[in-house]
Amino acid sequence: MKTLGYYNGKFGPLEEMTVPMNDRACYFGDGVYEATLAKNGKIFALKEHLDRFFNSAGLIKIDVPYTKEEIASILYDMLAKMDDNEIFIYWQLTRGTGIRQHQFPEKGTKANFWIFMKPGKHGSTDKRLKLTDMEDTRFMHCNIKTLNLLVNVMAAEKAEEAGCGECVFHRGDIVTECAHSNVSIIKDGVFKTHPADHYILPGITRMHLIQLCKDNGIPVDETPFTMQELMDADEVIVSSSTKFCAPACEMNGTPIGGKAPELVKLLQEKYIEKFEAETKG
């Protein structure tokens, strides 16, 4: 199949799938999600994504009605039905189905499990991104990968309208992350990234890049940095499950980065090696 959807055990082409109007995703965005890539029938970093998925669900008190092994089995069963070799995989869990009310539905209401798959590849490592920025007006639980993404949507649209590849969030002058990526900088050979607190999503790719830095003798500094530090950085790196390790070249039309291309290339090559090793046919 070219695309495939899943809802509580039912499979079908994505465009044919339907969900109940009273699923709490429809009214409140009351759920959590994950996304990653697959190649050669192998799902990349699945353990890390499942760990974060269960953590996010626990933080908003949703009981996951499956084990990690059961979810992995469902994902692999679906993946085997796909026609393409490189696939984007998304899954989410919502608090269940019930008449609209702000408080949780009655005890015993089972969570709803959604999945969709479509053809998808990681981003090119050859292209540098243009960036724009925006005040981070989201809530104080950005570490939870919830469905509440309205501000992220508005920021992504701002970037699109400006011809940019991402929008950098900042709280005052402190950089947090991007609309749908993490952002880090390299300065004087040090990889600097916002700490994994409640202001950012603890990105899987961010975590991998930190480990790759440590494995290759690149110092890591997990402390907040400012917009001015970003503008003055030797390199600005945007990272996500699909972008991998994407360097930036502009912020609102002003040139940035480009001063440590050898370090960027090293991280990109090491990350591609990791991806190819884990998804080898």
Can you lay out the helices and strands and say which pair or pack?
Elements: E1 4-7, E2 10-12, H1 24-28, E3 31-39, E4 42-43, H2 46-59, H3 68-79, E5 86-94, E6 112-119, E7 129-135, H4 150-161, E8 166-171, E9 174-178, E10 182-187, E11 190-193, H5 204-215, E12 220-221, H6 227-232, E13 235-240, E14 244-251, E15 254-255, H7 261-278
Question: If you had to describe this structure to a student in words, what would you say it looks like?
Answer:
The strands form two sheets. Strands 7, 8, 9, 10, 11, 12, 13, 14 and 15 form a nine-stranded mixed β-sheet that branches. This protein has seven helices and 15 strands. It has 281 residues and is of the alpha+beta class. The protein has helices at 24-28, 46-59, 68-79, 150-161, 204-215, 227-232, 261-278; strands at 4-7, 10-12, 31-39, 42-43, 86-94, 112-119, 129-135, 166-171, 174-178, 182-187, 190-193, 220-221, 235-240, 244-251, 254-255. The two termini are 20 Å apart.
